[in-house]
Amino acid sequence: MGVRAVVQIGMLAAVAVILMLFEIPLPFAPSFYKIDFSEVPVLVGCFAMGPVAGALIELVKILLNFVLTGTSTAGVGEIANFVIGCALCVPAGIIYRRDRTRKNALIGMATGTILMTVLGCFVNAYVLLPAYGAAFGMPVSKLVGLGTAVNPHITSLSTFVIFAVAPFNLIKGVAVSAIVFVIYKKISPVLRMR
Fold first, then answer.
1. For residue 31, what pLDDT is reported?
2. For the chain, does the N or the C end have fewer beta carbons within 10 angstroms?
């Protein structure tokens, strides 16, 4: 990895940190589920420099955000953001790297969105929500109750995952993919220094 790649990773991570500040709450999920577009520069980096660089951008983004703003989730939200962000971007970068076509970009982003949604559901149900509850001394049933307050279909952990976590990750994956699909070819020459 050369100096140019390190600079680009830092630059894209800095843009991602700025984008993390602009969060959009969703009407069907508890208030701690907010969409941001910080995966856009990560996915751009994956396409331009490869999946390893994308994972590094994701990591630097999380670390910078932690240093600048701290954590309100005892680190659980940051771990979730890293794991689920990589689940979207790394597979998309791997597929796109094989053959750099619009078709492969779409296939990669669709694969990443599906993987992010499935992994997000599993990790939230079995790791993140229990860890979040333990960190704040609240049972998972109380977290489910926060979901029920905004969405009456949420009555258990499984319905929480189905009606809050899955749509959240699906919407985020589709939105990030759509933005990257529109902007990537316009900005990729800058990243490749052409």
1. 83
2. C
Q: Between helices 51-69 and 76-98, what is the axis angle to 10°?
A: 160
Could you write out the three-class secondary structure of the chain? CCHHHHHHHHHHHHHHHHHHCCCEECCCCCCCCEECCCHHHHHHHHHHHCHHHHHHHHHHHHHHHHHHHCCCCCCHHHHHHHHHHHHHHHHHHHHHHHCCCHHHHHHHHHHHHHHHHHHHHHHHHHHHHHHHHHHCCCCHHHHHHHHHHHCCCCCCHHHHHHHHHHHHHHHHHHHHHHHHHHHHHHHHHHHCCC
Residue 73, classed as helix, strand or coil, is coil
pLDDT at 194 over 70: no
Whole-prediction pTM? 0.89
**Strand bridging mode 34-35 / 24-25:** antiparallel
What are the angstrom distances between the C-alpha of 83 and each of 7, 55, 104? 23, 9, 23
Distance CA 42, CA 15 (A): 9
| Three-state DSSP class for residue 184 | helix
